[in-house]
Amino acid sequence: MKINIQITPILFSVLTMALTVSCTDLEIEETDSLISEDSGSTGFTGLSDPESSLSDLYIKVGGDFQGQENMYALSEVATDELLVPTRGTDWGDNGIWRQLHTHTWTPSHLYVKNSWNNLNENIFRATEIIESNPSAAVVSEAKFLRAFNMFFVVDLFGSVPFRGVDEGPDVNPMVMTRSEAFDFIIADILDALPNLPSVTPGVDNTGKATQEAANFLLAKLYLNASVYKGTGTFDTADMQKVIDAVDAIEAKGFAIQEGYFQIFEPTDDTETIWHLNSEVGGRIWNTLHYNQNSPDNDGGGWNGFTTLSDFYNSFEGAPNTNYVGDGQEERRGFVPDANNANNQNLGIGYGFLIGQQYDQNGKPLTNRQGNPLVFTKEIPALVGNTEVEGVRVIKYHPYDPTDEEDQINSFRRHQIMFRYADAHLMRAEAMMRMGDDVTAIVNELRQKRTDTPDLTSVGEQELLAERGRELFIEYWRRNDLIRFGQFTAPWSLKEVSGDETTNLFPIPETALLSNPNLVQNPGY
After folding, report:
1. How much is the pTM?
2. What DSSP string describes 339-353?
3. Which of 139, 173, 401, 432 has its CA 20 to 30 A from that of 36?
């Protein structure tokens, strides 16, 4: 019996994100994955055009991972890296953002539910493609996409339901344990690898599944194997597999790229291993103030996402300003001031925005009440804030030097998911777990980042901090904190809990009701 998975409704545009989850307390009707029975169908006979379905799946995955909510919110806003403070009534959203920061979410949390549904739908769609007898190349790409989505289910939720294409709605999907799903994902990647293309960095398309992307995902899995297998120890054989996978990527010419923020432009570089066809507008505008804008978005930012002062303090530089010449390392970015604001930066900075903000003519900006727009370092509370609390974080920029027509392209579609600097640090961590001194290897990365002095030694604390400085708002902070045993630690405006159960999100209530084979994660 042919089974279709439907999510109704799904809207991926940045406009919809702004209207539904940014600045108002809207009631959002929750929808769920629906399994419908095709009338008259007697079994799955294969998709009529698996190659076209594969293209559709790439688009679907790109849309799912481009938003500021769902998987991104669970991966980043639930950490010490991002906070969405309520400003008056703006960004209240019935407490949905505050629950992530304080680790007080429940099985009915909208973003928990949406993430579960989106990821599992993508897994099923990939399985339909694989079971439709397509070419070996199509099978391999579909297996990679299935592995990628299943990785996030394993990482966020632990156990993974799996429905065969011939199973009707009367069949409860079997459920893999976290360890079983880990093995399943590894098998998918290893099966896919021989028939995936290999790419040359800066030359070939990094928007499709490749051997290098597969090796990156293998490294990520083996590095986290102690978490996913539940052993709590870093096995030497797993760490060696991390090193081997990264070595394979490096052998193809991937390397650390100089010019940190240029990496996040859709240009040729040696760092981008795999990118999604995702709009990056949400990464730009969810942090900027309403009065910061560009010619293609004169409505301004959404004035939401900030970082915590402790995370900002992990970067070198003047503690309370981030203007040019303040002694900051390259990755902390800069705020254009009256002397260097121009059409090329639109007056909008890079990295971490603190203090007085300016327009492209060097004129100081004001907030909506006419007061100076000065972003503060400290956030006093989760609620009751004004328009200016919090250091803002921006990695992609609305100025796009690759856009030959007008150089302004805030909503271009190029979100990096896998890049070589991450692989380089994964290899360093694997070597550290095996007892090696990796100070020189970490400094090799830092030497590519301007005004970033060498570290004198590197242990777990230093390596976690370095991963934060290099990879902020790239989907990996929660994953890193859990592996280093820091996800349940206290941070600003989050009480000390020490409750290890929040290392996993709950299985949504609707999923438990629809599939009795699922068992709720402990503590929920």
Report:
1. 0.92
2. TT--TTTTT--EEEE
3. 139
Express each pLDDT in 189-218 by its tens digit: 999 999 999 999 988 889 999 999 999 999
Token output for 101: 């920061």
Identify the helix (H) or strand (E) that includes residue 471: helix 460-471
- Which of 440, 489, 483 lies closest to 460, judged by CA? 483
Residue matched to tokens 């021989």: 194
Q: What backbone phi and psi angles, to 5 degrees, belong to 131? A: -85, 10
Structure token digits, residue 231: 């052993």
DSSP character string of 342-400: -TTTTT--EEEE-EE-B-TTSPBPB-TTSSB-EEBS----SSSB-SSBSBEEESS-SB-
What span, in angstroms and rounded, lies between the C-alpha atoms of 410 and 277?
Answer: 14
As to burial, measured by CB atoms within 10 angstroms (0-12 exposed, 13-18 middle, 19+ buried), residue 418 is buried
Q: How far from 111 is each of 287, 375, 500, CA to CA, in Å? A: 19, 28, 20
Pairing of strands 160-162, 34-37: unpaired
Q: Where are the alpha helices (DSSP H) in 193-299?
A: 211-223, 225-228, 236-251, 281-285
